[in-house]
Design brief:
Number of helices: 9
Helix content: 40-55%
Oligomer: single chain
Bound molecules: pyridoxal-5'-phosphate
Largest sheet: 9 strands, parallel
Radius of gyration: 17 Å
CATH class: Alpha Beta
Length: 227
Amino acid sequence: MTTIAENIGQLRRQIRQFEQQYDRPADSVNLLAVSKRQSTQKIREANQAGLQDFGENYLQEALEKIQQLQDLRLNWHFIGPIQANKTKPIAENFQWVHSVGRAKIAQRLSDQRSSDEPALNVCVQVKLSDEATKSGVAVAEAEALCDMIEQLPQLQLRGLMAIPAALPDLASQRHSFSLLANEFARLKARYSHLDTLSMGMSNDYEAAVAEGSTLVRIGTAIFGARS
Ligand SMILES: *Cc1c(COP(=O)(O)O)cnc(C)c1O
């Protein structure tokens, strides 16, 4: 059985190798540990192995873990679907939200983020044509949502996120990630401060790195199967 520290070491070596192979600058791809349905003990182990950024999908579960792990000073990323009536605890307890797909959600997150706190980092979630989930804005509407978020005082727009449908081969995975990467490049020409292209999971991060991901969201390959 491999330990979490070994998995993280292996993943870091693999990411470094893909950076070289696909002509990406060294250390341009960051690692977000997706800890949904994993224990706080496992999160502590991953933190001891050097990870600070953790992604959660389910609000109630996440709030309990954030409370229990306060001593570690972790960066918490909300990456799941967002219901409008749940935005307040998200605005109050997370540093990042990757799954902003509607203007109403963006507005509420900004209104509910305290002005004593730094702005909440957000990514606009884009629904690609073969998207696995229903969340997210169509590619054609991403720019309008970004324009709106740019005006909100307590949100800091960082980039785009997507969850493409699981595809079996590298070429088709790369194709769907390239759609998001193209939109990101277009937006960056307008908003040069954008720095985050959140794409790639355990089964497709090679394709994501090849297409320009700056943040891969990895659960299973770090922690093993979820309970
Ligand atoms: C669960 C999840 C992940 C991680 O998936 P793995 O296949 O376990 O790496 C990444 N991103 C999102 C949005 C998820 O819901």
